[in-house]
Structures are given as C-alpha cells and as structure tokens.
Amino acid sequence: MTELTCTKLTLLTLTAILIQSIGLSVFVFGFFPVKSALSGASGPESFFPPGSHERPTDDLPPQQLKSLYQELSGIPPLFDRIILMVIDGLPAEFVLGKGGKPPRSDLKEAMPYLQSLLSNGLAVGYHAKAAPPTVTMPRLKAMVSGAIGGFLDVAFNFNTQALLDDNLLGQLFRIGWKMVMLGDETWLKLFPELFMRHDGVSSFFVKDTIQVDQNVSRHLKHELSMDDWNLLILHYLGVDHVGHIGGRNSVLMIPKLFEMDEVVKMIHLRTILNQVNDARKTLLVVVSDHGMTENGNHGGSSYEETDSLVLFIGLNRIIDDYASATIQSVSQVDITPTLAVLSGVPIPKNNVGFLISAPFDSFPDDKKLRALELNSWQLLRLVKAQLPDLSCRNFVHVARANGQKITGNCSGHIEEVLCCLYLNASDLYHSWLSNETFGEHVTATVAAYYEFLKTSNEWLSRRVTDKPVGVLTFGVAAMTISCLILTSLIIWMARTVYSGEKQQSSNLSNWMHGWCINEIFVLGIILIFVMSMGSSSMVEEEQYIWHFMISTSYLLLLRKVIQSLPVESAVNLLEILRGPNGVNTYKFCSIFFLLISGRILRGWHQGGVNWAHLPDISKWLEQAGSHFLRSIVLVSGIFVISLGLFALSQLKSRRKFCQVVGVFILIPGLLVLWHIIVRGSNELWLSSHGATTLLQAIFAFLGISTIGTSVGLPWLMPVSVSSCSAQQSNLSTLVSVDPEYKSCLVEFRDSLYMMGLAYILSWCLLQLLLQQPINAMPISLLLTQILSTMVYSYHSRPRHKEWVEVALLYYTGMAGHFALGNSNTLATIDVAGAFIGLSSYSSLLSGILMFLITYASPTLVLLSLVIYISLKDDSYLASPKNVEFGNLLKLMLGFPCLIPLGLNSVLLTAYTIVLLLMRNHLFIWSVFSPKYLYVCATTVCVYVGVFVVAATGMYTYAVLMFRRKVLATNRIR
Hints:
Elements: H1 6-31, H2 62-73, E1 81-87, H3 93-96, H4 105-110, H5 112-119, E2 123-129, H6 136-145, H7 153-156, H8 168-174, E3 179-184, H9 186-190, E4 197-201, H10 211-217, H11 220-225, E5 231-236, H12 238-246, H13 253-272, E6 282-287, H14 303-306, E7 307-313, E8 329-331, H15 335-343, H16 365-386, H17 392-401, H18 414-434, H19 439-462, H20 469-498, H21 508-513, H22 517-532, H23 536-540, H24 542-564, H25 573-578, H26 583-604, H27 617-624, H28 626-649, H29 655-681, H30 689-716, H31 746-770, H32 776-795, H33 802-819, H34 843-854, H35 856-871, H36 885-917, H37 924-972
Parallel strand pairs: 1-5, 1-6, 2-8, 3-4, 3-5
Antiparallel strand pairs: 2-7, 6-7
Helix pairs in contact: 1-20, 1-36, 16-18, 16-19, 18-19, 20-36, 22-24, 24-26, 24-33, 26-32, 27-28, 28-29, 28-31, 28-32, 29-30, 29-31, 30-31, 30-37, 31-32, 31-35, 31-37, 32-33, 32-35, 33-35, 33-36, 35-36, 35-37, 36-37
C-alpha cells in the first residue's frame, strides 16, 4: 500500500474541499437562479388584446401619458392619492381573527378604532397569503410588482438592490405622481431617486422598538397637511421588532398595536373623512409584509408566517356584512393589479395576481368587466411568455375543425385549459356588450374571468424555473468526486493506523471483519439519515432522527461498559466499579451524564414544524416567570465557569499556566454573570447604551484571551531536549495520568489541552450572551456532554476506534443544534440576537452573529476536537519513525479533521441529489429548499471548525519543534 504522507493528505483534502466548494457554488446558483422576468414596462399596449397593437411605450410627458392611459383603459382613476401603511410583521389574525372567529379580546381592545371601522362597514380586510420566504424585501417586491421572486431573495434581503423590473411605483412615477416615503429604508434601496421626500430607518436593528416608529410618526401630521404628494408610504417596524425580542405575546405588543391604531385614526380623521369636500380622493391601504410565529420569528411557510394583512379604508361603499369583510382570503400579489387599476396605470408586466373584488364592487358593470379584461390580457401575455407555442387562435381553429364548442367545460393540457377559460370569459363579455340588459349575464362573466385569472395565477405561481441540467449535473458530479476523495482518505487513514494493531489485517475485508456493533451503528446513522431525506415530513422533523440516534449510541456505549466488566457476584459490584484507578467509575459516570443530559436536551425544545406547539421544558420555564428563568441563566453561567476551571485544574503538571488561562477565562466570565444579573432585573437593559458598551467589552475580553492563549502558549510552554521518561510524561487528562507513553509529546498535548479548553469555554460564555435566556441551560448541558464524552473515550481505549469517537462527537453537535430550538425552517433563526452588542446596524457583523447563534452546538463540538487531540490514544506512536514531524501531525490531526469533512460531504452530496430529484415536488420551496440552505451553512461551519482545529495543531507543533531545535543548537554551542 502506498504510504499516505502528511503532505499528500493535506493536498488531497484541500483538493477535495476546493472541488466541493466549486460544485456547491455551481449547483446553488443553477438551482436557485434569480427568477427571470419580462424586460421593459407595460405601456399603451396593455389596453389592447395580446398580439394586436403591440408597441413600445410612447415617450410622452407624464400628464399626456396619464390622459392616454385613461382614454385607452376606459376606466377613470377612482383615487388620485393613496396612503400605503405597512405594519411590518403584523399577523392578519391580530386584526381579523382566525377561522371565522374574531381576534382575542385584548387584541381587539388594542386597536379599537380599526375594529370600529370594520364593524361599521367603513373598512374591508383580507387575509393576504404571502409566499415564502417570508422576509421583508421579497414581500415588498411582491406587493409592488405582483411577481413572486426567486428563493434566494431571502439572502438578498440583507443587501437589497434596486428593483429594475416593472412595478407599480415606476408606473405611477411615469404619469407624474409625487411620492413620499417614511420608515423602512428598504424602500429607498429598492426605489432610489423616486421619492421627493423620505426619512429612512434601518429595518434590521431589532433592539429599537420605539424610535424606529417615532421617526415615521413625527412627520405624519406635516405630510397629511401637504397636498404635493400622490403616494405616501409609511412603513412601521415596531411590531416586527417587538416580535423578534419577545414573541407574539410580548408585554410590548399591546401598546405597540394601540400606537398603530392611533396612526390609522389620525389618517382617517384628517384625510378620508374630509375627502367629501376635496376633489382629490384618498385611499388608505393598511398592509403587512408577513406574519410571525409564536416566538416572533418569520421566514418560513407556516400559516402564522404567511398570514399577512391587507385592509382598504376609504372605498366608495359600505360593507354591510361584517363577516364578509374579515374572513376573505387573497394573495399578497393581488395588491399590485388592484392598486394599478384604481390609480389608472397599466398592470406591471410580471404580475401574477388578480383583482381583489371589494374595491370594484362600486364600479358600474361595464367598468368592472373592463378591469377584469385588462387583468386577463396582462396574465395571458405572461402565460404566452412562459409558453411560446401557446396560441388561442389555433385552439379555436382546432376546436371548430373537430366540431367542438369553444366554450364549456375545459380540460386537457394546460395550454388548452387556459385558452378555453380565456375564450369562455371573452365570449361572455362580448355577448354582454351586445346586450347590456342581462344582470345575471354579468355575474356569469365575472365568474368566468375569475376562473381564468385564478387558474393562470396558480399555474404561474407554482411554475418551476427551468433548471440548466448541464450545470446541475456538473455540480452534483463535483460534490460526488469530493465525497469519494474524502471517504477514500478516511479508509486509507484507518488502514494505516489500525494495521499496526492487527498485523493479520492485510486487506480491507479482514480489517472490517472485527467491527463491533458501535462501529456498525455509527455508519448506519448516516444510511438512515440519507434515506429519510426524501420525506418532507422527516425533513421538517429532523430533530427526532438525531435525538433518537444519539440516545441509542449512548445506550450502546452503556452496553459495552457492562460487557467489559468481569463476571463476579453482586457482592463485589462496588469493587468492580472502582476497578484499577477507578476506570469503571469514570466510564459509568460519564455514560450516566450523557444519558441524563441527552434526555433533558431532547425535551427542552419541541422543535420542528408540525409539533412546535406541543409543551416542552422551555415553555414550562417561560410560564414559571422571569425571576425563575433568570435564576436558571445565572446558575448555568456559574456552572459553565466552574466546570471549565475544574477541567483546567486537572492538568497538575502545568499549574501556573492553567492559573493564567483560568484568569483569562474568569474575567470575562464574571462580566457575563454581571450582564446576566442586570439583564434579568431590567427587560430594557439590552437596548441601553450601557449594555452595548459592556457587551462590546466582554466580546473584546473573550477575543483577546482566546487568541492570546492560542498564539502565546506554545511560545511560553517549557520545552526539553532530553527524551521523556514515563515519570516525566505527566500527560494532560481530565482525571488521571497514563504512564505508558514513551514519545516526547508532553508539551504538544498540554498546550492543546489548555488551548482547547480556552476555545470551548470562551465559546460557551459567548453563547450565554447571544442565545435567548431559555437556552442558557442547554449550553451548559452541551458542555457537560462534550467533557463526559472525552472522559469516556479516554478511559475506554484502546477498545474504541478514533473515527468512531469523532463521529459520535459530530452527531452530538447535530443533536445539540436542534436542542437549542433550531429547525429546518428559516423562522427559527434568532434575528434579535444578531444585534446584541451592536450600537448600529451592520449587515456583515449581524450576519456573523446570526451564524454564530444558529450553529452554536456544531461549532462547540468542532472546537472541542482540540481537547480530543490532546487526550487521544497515541500508543501507535511508540515507534521512533512515527515521531517524525509530518507523520506525527498526520496521525494526530487526520481523523479529527477528516471525519467531520467526510460525514458532512456524504450528507451534502446525498441531499443535493434529493433536492434535484424533488425539484418538481409540491414542497420544494417550503421544505426542501430551506433545508438545503441549512446544509450549505453547515458545510461552511464544518470548513471553519476544521480549519481552526488543523491550524491550532500545526501551529502549536511547529512552534514547539522550532523552540526545541533552537534550544538544542544553543546547547551544542
């Protein structure tokens, strides 16, 4: 067998990572392209049937263009002033109720004026379904363009670019409308240079729940008194920010809703009620971009997140039936064509929505049918762009040649169905035009138009963008090659390491013959997980798989401990547990901690999608009160610091160094405890300047202490040129010393032990600051699990293979990821925590903090591999040739770096293939695609974690060897 040198291993690993990165990038941008859109803007041709009078928009002055549109459309604008009030994150059920039932009494009392408008028939509201991803930027684009954007808009939400596609604001600007915007600066990024006045605020700085809305309202009285604008956009962010901080039931929610109600009251009293004597009629449209989950997050596709609001106030009619004004449902994209027709501009080209009925109920029959005709022409143009071969004229000729009726029941291919439905409505409309006296005929015509519009909308909304097959195939092939390379390297490493243990294991089959049930199960976990990826339900509830697998692994470890005990009478059980040097006691205690902590973590959060409403430990603690929760957070912080200092104290041979590292950890630890105490006594503490300053100081202390320890420790560690005897090898362990090692690895292992503890303790302290308070206890339990696993692995050697131990640690990190409340929906991402310690919004820093919060558990496990290397079984390094620099690094760092890369590569490649196979699945955008974003982010997490482990090991060993050589040279001189 060709020898696998350290250089070869490094080059092959880097090559595999490079190939995987290229393949992943190619696949992502091939599978999630920015959705294609028709270029240009709708113009005079919009008022003619598709295929006739097609011409580009005339370059006319705004007033002439406005008159031309009115002349061609035949529908005079009903409103020449529109106030669009966006209440970010407001669920429609807060205002309209749910399932035909009114909203809760406290919610109704929070918005009394708005409820009075609804009950008196002066307003009509709809549940507007928002398409995923339910984040602000793509939802605003949907409301003004009527188009459903690409899935990757969720990423562009943090770096908004100007909207170049045809949209409502652009159409209004071309006819001379003057626009003013107050609120979320996303509007300014989407539509630069369109607003004659504006005052934008950051939508991402969620700590601000007061000033962010006051900045909007302070201009409101002045703007309402002005008559130089036609469109006033008010985007209030407070409700969304309150949700992110405290959830739907936050104590701040009711006051914030009352504040929004007062804004509606002011607008209605100052503009709508006075418009009788005003030639300029004003329409107030209150909308929300998305809803929110119980914990206040959004981004996924659950009902709570997609249930947004659209409310019309100031229509020329009174709604007699309160129920019909509150329980109706529309799509969010329907806002675009509705406002376009009401304001007298063409419907944007890429709109997939259709007219909301209520604003047009007061229209005469001819105007109402004309509006539906214009909407059907626009959608038919968009359908023809997607189906170039679609020709309804050919459909008519074929139908007549076959002796079929043009109208009637429509069936067949989508082209035939759409043409049939369109011609049904068109024939009924022209029949009505020839004799306008048939009232029932109007109802049938309206129903026919809506049937065509709804069918076209459904087909366009779910149509999958054509995927470049060649590009996707290249991406999958590259990831497969990378996976094969990493898997081969792991097998190669295993045969190299374990061939010395069993000389008879000359081939792979003999090597595999001695596998035990633990090793088989570790590989079986991957197989089971890959098989479950094809089920949307298993993707939504992935946490059950990881919790079940890791719990079963702990039970198998317990079984192995019991099997290793000598068969003696129960009388001698205590002596058996004590064993030589208490080894059996350590193993039993570590397994006990793993089982108990694992079960607690399993019940801490009822994660996932379908069962998140079920009771769990976190919900019970939240109900117990803030004082009880604060005590748990404080106890968790003390436990983390105490456990870390205890682990450091076990390195008795480096007591002074451990004391210094302990001080470096203790100082920020005490600051963290101080922050926890103050935060618990003042709910508004996080929003204060003092809290921001303290948090920034803690971040600085943690960074300096961690980096200082990792960089400076190898240079300060005492080194010796003489060979190390068994008595000198006081190796770093958590519990005891193993005198069997004969190679000079003391400085290397002791340095890694202290550096690894500095890594994980600093990481845990950081998470105590960033995570929600309810997650403080899981952080301490995860630390306990990791240290217990280290103790068990150390005392179980050489029975366990190293790749099995590293794989189990990796699985522990994935189970912990879901134990912290994460899931495969974007709604569980903690946006509020991404602004802790920031005095102003920064997309880069917020993105980094969001990543650190989400991947707290996997990163913690990866960082703990530095400690694992210092405790690993190195009996195979006894031969002098193995002490050579390159070979030693290969054997010490090989498995801890390759196993996470290999496992992640298998899961990444498998799920990429699943995603490709499921590209036409009903839940492709709501279930499988969000999961793939998590898979990609996990890959980045593994890359960063493995890099830290490898860099730490190589740097430490290089510095120690350099110092050893310098010391040897000086002695010779």
